Amino acid sequence: MVVVLPTLLAAACATPDQTPARPTSASASASNPAVPAQAARPSATADPPTLSAVGPLFAAGLPSVHTCTASVVSSPTGNIIVTAAHCVSGTGAGQLFAPGYDDGGVPYGTWVVQRAYLAPSWITHQDPAVDFAFLVVAPSTTNRTRASVQSVVGANTLGSAPATGQQVTVAGYTIGHDDLPVVCTATVYRTRGYPSFDCPGFADGTSGSPWISHYNAATGTGTITALIGGLNQGGCTADTSYSAPFTDTVKQVYARAVAGEPADETLPAGLPIC
User: Fold this and answer.
1) Tens digit of each residue's pLDDT (9 = 90 or more) over 193-225
2) What is the DSSP string of the chain?
């Protein structure tokens, strides 16, 4: 579910031999042990709530089309968000993040991206195993008071890749404007080592959507253990999504963002091969 900034590329596709059979029943799962059994496929929430720490990214400001999804990550500075690396072009500077975006409304305002941090192997050859990026946003000034995005909307903690069989809640925004998020709780399985889940509705624009483990509905937060991206830049259909596996590398890139080290710059992502 990819949209590459600023060229708005279409979603990536997995070839048939890359995607395991979807878990429609216990018998179907038994034929493919990598996929956990499920009584029924999950479905996206019909009238989803917004999550205050999750929102779309706007490449050209409001009210332009939003193109990817990002979420706030807990940090000492309170100004770090995470998205897919293929959503970043150049330094990423100038994009707007609108947490809790609700049918065209920006209840928590917008936050301007200042710089980006990516894994070296993404910068050199766009390695799908490290398709994640941490973005630093500028504090907002209201009534002469400067506030971090985390202090206003809350944040998710950063975790490691989810285990097969673990449940995650995923929230993202499809490409467009004046819309609501797609929200689904699904069970994780693996495709060629990449965390995967099945749920309809995660189309173009949902790249970067956080997979939240231990989701607390009261706070709308939990632990980010993955995000839509990775294999074929997130997947070719709105029904199956992938993530880069979160390993020690994700923590190293995050640490650079927290430390305020020199920022990275990357070329626009190429088209995925489907």
Assistant:
1) 999 999 999 999 999 999 999 999 888 899 999
2) ----TTTTPPPP---GGGSPPP-SSHHHHHT-TTS---SS-----SSPPP-TTEEEEESS-TTS-EEEEEEEE--SSS-EEEE-GGG--BT-TT-EE-TT-BTTB-TT--EEEEEEEE-HHHHHH--GGG--EEEEEPPEEETTEEE-HHHHH--BEE-PPPPTT-EEEEEE--SBSS---EEEEEE-EEETTEEEEE-TT--TT-TT-EEEEEEETTTTEEEEEEES-SGGGG-SSSSEEE-----HHHHHHHHHHHHTPPPB-BPPPPPPP-
Give yes or no for residue 19 having a pLDDT over 90: no
Q: Is the pLDDT of residue 35 over 90?
A: no
pLDDT per residue over 41-81, tens digit each? 565 554 457 899 999 999 888 888 999 999 999 999 999 99
What confidence tens digit (pLDDT) does each residue in 177-190 have? 778 899 999 999 99
Neighbour order of strands in the sheet with 189-191: 189-191, 194-198, 240-242
Number of Cα atoms under 13 Å in the Cβ half of residue 36: 17
* Domains along the chain with CATH numbers: 16-259 (2.40.10.10)
Q: Is the pLDDT of residue 125 over 70?
A: yes
